Amino acid sequence: MSLNPARTPVPISRLPHVGTTIFTVMSALAAEHEAVNLGQGFPDFDCDPALVDAVTQAMRAGHNQYPPMPGAPALRQAMAAKMQALYGLTCDPTTEITVTAGATQAILTAILAIVQPGDEVIVLEPCYDSYVPNIELAGGVAVRVPLTPGSFRPDFDRIAASITPRTRALIINSPHNPSGTVWSAADMQHLQALLAPTDVLLISDEVYEHMVFDGQAHQSVARFPGLAARAFIVSSFGKTYHVTGWKVGTVVAPAALMAEFRKVHQFNVFTVNTPMQHALAAYMADAAPYRELPAFYQRKRDLFRGGLAATRFRLLPGEGTYFQCVDISNLAVPERDLPEADFCQWLTKEIGVAAIPLSAFYGNGFDQRVVRFCFAKKDDTLREALTRFARL
Predict the structure, then answer these.
(1) Average pLDDT over residues 155-176
(2) Strands 141-146, 120-125: parallel, antiparallel or unpaired by DSSP?
(3) Mean pLDDT confidence for 330-357
């Protein structure tokens, strides 16, 4: 017997406007044309072998059954120590930290925990592509506020004007994907003052917290009491330790918010891969890997930016993350006038390097002649891409 599509009931889509993501499309195109894939944001190099060994040790030690729903106590304790050491935030690992199946699940769970049908949630565009669908799945209304084109800095006047009695939450992301912009202490203080007279909650996506360059410090929401008191702070072990496929992250939040978060979490994923939690906890005993990460990625950024400077791409600032945005307006090829998405397809097929159009991060497809590259790659991979750019 075979399936008969004619007899399959057709559900009403919860996300009728959502299709295959641009990341999947461009990665498939890159593979088809044997292009250097600087589109999707993941490393093409291995993690520290000691971290892999720690997973094996955890498995051999018997850590193979369900851990507690909020996460292995050892990992929550390690995360609490890190928050105190880096940001001066004292949090209770028992009631204020939960281990998640990556940052994407963390963000969805936070939204489902706090957003009621009809609530408004402000997102700052361009933004990571899961935010708006998450809000819609909760029955909320996404209120899109653009970051300043070109600099991608927050426009606090526009944010303030977007807050209404129905505003339930604001999502921020620093260091910022896709632009690489990093919020300053002054930005955070401005936001703290703006939200102080409101009951608006905050979801702070800080997955690139250890990729801040040129001597800057990451200004976590955890550093600002008025923000930390209303925030879900989202972190990613996958980004920090080059293990994006492990899908392990954490959320830090005040106990009252975390209680609601865990109500959803326990019926969403319930808990997260046990041996990897124990391995990460053991590995975190040495702070050197995450403390050395800014220098590690700054060197890659500088290598890549140095090569791009010899092309007709116009470099945008790259203050953090492992992404570099460029303006394509000055290229000496007629294809520069294509829409960003079409240009990225052409670049992949004809030049052999895959990128992501910034328009994919806007709800209205705003096209400003900017594309994004990922430089979380081996040096040889970056050099090969730069060699191919010489054809432009």
Answers:
(1) 98
(2) parallel
(3) 95
Do 164 and 228 share a domain, yes or no? yes
CB 367 within 8 A of CB 339: yes
Note whether 240 and 298 are same-domain residues: no
Lowest mean pLDDT among 26-30, 154-158, 223-227: 26-30
Q: Which domain holds residue 160?
A: 54-288
At residue 9 the predicted structure's pLDDT band, cuts being 50, 70 and 90, is: confident
| pLDDT reported for residue 5 | 66
Question: How far are the Cα atoms of 29, 78, 280, 290, 379 from residue 287, in angstroms, in the given order?
Answer: 39, 10, 12, 6, 25
Specify whether 113 is located in the same domain as 28: no
Taking only the tens place, the pLDDT of each residue in 34-48 is 999 999 899 999 999
Q: Is the pTM of this model over 0.70?
A: yes
Please give the Cα distance from 42 to 208 (Å, whole number): 12
Q: What is the mean pLDDT of residues 79-105?
A: 98
Q: How far apart are CA 377 and CA 146, in angstroms?
A: 30
Looking at the 3D structure of the chain, how many domains does it have?
2
Tell me the chain's radius of gyration from C-alpha atoms.
Answer: 21
Percent above pLDDT 70 for the chain: 98
